[in-house]
Amino acid sequence: MTRTRVAVLISGRGSNMAALLAAAEDPSYPAEIALVLSNRPDAAGLAHAASRGVATAVVESRAFKGDRAGFEAAMEAEIARHGAEIIALAGFMRVLTEAFVTRWEGRMINVHPSLLPSFPGLDTHARALAAGVRLHGCTVHLVTAGVDEGPILAQAAVPVLPGDSEAALAARVLAEEHRIYPAALAWLAAGRVRVEGGRAGISDAPWATGSLANPLPSAPGLSKR
Ligand code: GAR
């Protein structure tokens, strides 16, 4: 089996990258992590990738102030050098140019810490708490020119609980990111994703059954179902 070569782009901690690396350690996983690339030399995830024997590279965005095309060209040179055919953004905190996104359309995915289209952008957990939503979660989507707008591949929902801090909610969501991101990357790498009319289909997807209500719809007089 030939495995699809993937470049994972990070800016920091890299826990999603670590989840992808762990999945790709199984030889039957359809993707192989060919490169972990950071735009920051101090990204903690770089050391983890290196410790797992994965190639790493740093292309410092700071060195390309005002020259986004130059920054992206330098990244693409590294990505090409490692033969990567898919890009997985994993906490990569730079907005990419439309030209770059168009070149990689259908071959670049991202994980975002909210149930899109709710809460695109930053500070998603604080905004979810402020909005009083009962369910929050995460999304893996194909990257298109609109930030956090591309076709959705997978989502996971978690309950928001009374007294939740931003950190507690973030941790609950992050655990789900680590579950759905490796699965979504596998579907893309195996050629199981088709986009039509701005929406993604996944062949033979194991669709969920059941539902999650929060709080549980239980009260005196309501029979247990
Ligand atoms: C993750 O929660 C990811 O969803 C988020 O940054 C965190 C990175 O953590 N990404 C974004 O907000 C992108 N808009 P990690 O470095 O441990 O994977």
UniProtKB/TrEMBL annotation:
(6R)-10-formyltetrahydrofolate binds at R68, N110. Its EC number is 2.1.2.2. It catalyses: N(1)-(5-phospho-beta-D-ribosyl)glycinamide + (6R)-10-formyltetrahydrofolate = N(2)-formyl-N(1)-(5-phospho-beta-D-ribosyl)glycinamide + (6S)-5,6,7,8-tetrahydrofolate + H(+). Pathway: Purine metabolism; IMP biosynthesis via de novo pathway; N(2)-formyl-N(1)-(5-phospho-D-ribosyl)glycinamide from N(1)-(5-phospho-D-ribosyl)glycinamide (10-formyl THF route): step 1/1. Signal peptide: none annotated. It comes from the Bacteria. The keyword Membrane does not apply. GO terms for biological process: 'de novo' IMP biosynthetic process. It is an enzyme of class 2 (transferase). GO terms for molecular function: phosphoribosylglycinamide formyltransferase activity. The active site is at H112 (proton donor). GO terms for cellular component: cytosol. The record marks D148 as: Raises pKa of active site His. Residues 5-185 form the Formyl transferase N-terminal domain. Catalyzes the transfer of a formyl group from 10-formyltetrahydrofolate to 5-phospho-ribosyl-glycinamide (GAR), producing 5-phospho-ribosyl-N-formylglycinamide (FGAR) and tetrahydrofolate. Belongs to the GART family. This is Phosphoribosylglycinamide formyltransferase. It comes from Neoroseomonas marina.
